[in-house]
Specification:
There is one protein chain. The chain is built from three helices and 37 strands. It is mostly beta strands. The strands form ten sheets. Strands 26, 29, 30, 33, 34 and 37 form a six-stranded mixed beta sheet that branches. Strand 5 (about 70-80) and strand 6 form a beta hairpin. The longest helix has 25 residues, at about 1-25. It starts with a helix and ends with a helix. Bound molecules: 2-acetamido-2-deoxy-beta-D-glucopyranose (NAG) (6 copies). One 2-acetamido-2-deoxy-beta-D-glucopyranose binds near residues 228, 244, 246 and 287. Forms a complex composed of PDGFRL, TNK2 and GRB2. This is Platelet-derived growth factor receptor-like protein. One of its GO terms (molecular function) is vascular endothelial growth factor receptor activity.
Length: about 475
Amino acid sequence: MFDILFVMIFGLSGRVLTKDTDTKGRFSSPVLDVTEKQLIIERNQTLQLNCRGRWELQWVLPSGVPKVYHGTQIKETRCGKKNNQYCSRLMLSPALAQHTGSYRCRYRQKHRKQTSVYVYITDSQRPFVKVQSEIPEVVYMKEGEPLVFPCRVTNPDAKVSLVKFPFHPIAPDYRNIIWNSKHGFTIRSPTFFYIGLFSCETIVNGVKYSNRFLTHRPVNKILDVYLNSTGLVHMLQGQMLALNCTVTAEWNARVSISWTYPQKANGSANIIRRISRSRTNMLFYSVLTIPSLSTADRGLYKCHVTSGPSKRETNATVIVYDQPFIRLKHRDGPVVQASAGQKSFRLTPKLKAFPAPEVIWLKDGMVAAEQCSRYHVDRFSLVIRDVAEEDAGIYTILTGIQQYGLFQNLTLTLVVNVKPQTGEKTVSSQQPGTVQRGSRQALHCTSHGVPPPKIQWLWHPCPPKGLSPARLA
Ligand SMILES: *[C@@H]1O[C@H](CO)[C@@H](O)[C@H](O)[C@H]1NC(C)=O
Ligand SMILES: *[C@@H]1O[C@H](CO)[C@@H](O)[C@H](O)[C@H]1NC(C)=O
Ligand SMILES: *[C@@H]1O[C@H](CO)[C@@H](O)[C@H](O)[C@H]1NC(C)=O
Ligand SMILES: *[C@@H]1O[C@H](CO)[C@@H](O)[C@H](O)[C@H]1NC(C)=O
Ligand SMILES: *[C@@H]1O[C@H](CO)[C@@H](O)[C@H](O)[C@H]1NC(C)=O
Ligand SMILES: *[C@@H]1O[C@H](CO)[C@@H](O)[C@H](O)[C@H]1NC(C)=O
């Protein structure tokens, strides 16, 4: 008896279990009581939708239904044979044309699990879901994306045409130009033709209704950003700093230029902006001026450029000297050495100065560049081409900043080393010759070099007769 009861309970629970898995499959998404994809009701009627599911439910209504609307009623109950389901009834009364749209029922915790129905609420006085205001609606075009004129209608059978201002009807071709009563007109690949003023038009009972749109193509392409001084900018205290940031952008682009600079908090700079157009581009200038620099103005100056999501920047580092100066020193002592025959040699003392000084090189008291065509001044160095012995001497660099009465001189001595040379005829003797044994002979050797070469004599005894030099070696 106990055994039978046990089996019965067991069997019962087993059945409940299988039924449960059944419902799991059935209500993976909530279920609406309407099976059609769309409903058509008239204005002032009541819209009633019932939804059932396994978990708590939630409605998502078209944007035309105000969040707080006295006509909206939602009634939630537990339902199902075992009360283990959730039911929700939506009532909208009176339903109005602007409530046309997709009504969705979804699980509160699992938004992706949803079921929807599209409801048209017809109103002969309101064929478009949105009523046109004075100002046309702006529609943004994006590169590579379709363009949509969202003139949804309240009646799926409405005959709507698209017109480009002032009068250019555009017929749907269902390839590029598509009409859909739930979305409006879609242009799959819009061209420049679609920039302008457009309207969706329909005639109901002899009355023309329209929805107007202004298409706008935001342009955000920054082609180039140029600061007229970059890297290090050397300036003197009291001087005027002017930096010109020039931005080249696509036609119609809107660009904003801003600066960051050391004394920004004090607002010590004046900023002037200018826009000009060329045939192909837009040019935007922003000129930052600091009329009288102080040492506090030294540092990084950045020009930031933005156009929509595009960003670019460029910078310059400004160095401010409190006074003009010349610092001139030897690099490797007062005496420098070169070698005769060297392709080139550069005399470069250490020179730091601001502003840039004038430089003159003297050789032995005369202007170097005028003395020899092999001398030339490169920036402030003296370059000697094809170094020769006669280049040795005393060199003086004269530097000066006339404007500020600053002058400095520096003297260097150049020593030109010459490799010792013994010419063919430099050893004097009658060669080959025989002299008498015991006689006195003088041998002369002449050689030249800088520094003076040391001369060393070597004596090689003649090989005995009969032996070839090769064997001796
Ligand atoms: C809807 O109701 C309003 C006000 O109650 C009325 O003026 C209008 O004529 C009605 N419209 C329709 C289509 O019944
Ligand atoms: C800035 O520089 C551009 C050229 O790079 C020039 O055309 C423009 O006139 C300059 N702006 C000012 C205010 O000097
Ligand atoms: C940069 O532009 C400004 C304004 O046009 C000008 O005053 C300044 O001299 C320019 N600087 C250089 C280095 O060209
Ligand atoms: C700029 O501001 C700093 C701190 O706020 C101040 O020390 C400095 O003197 C100001 N410079 C000028 C030129 O007003
Ligand atoms: C300044 O500009 C240079 C060259 O464009 C860049 O390499 C450097 O990182 C910039 N410096 C700063 C601090 O932004
Ligand atoms: C530099 O040399 C020039 C010419 O020899 C001379 O007139 C001048 O006084 C010198 N200046 C200094 C600062 O030594």
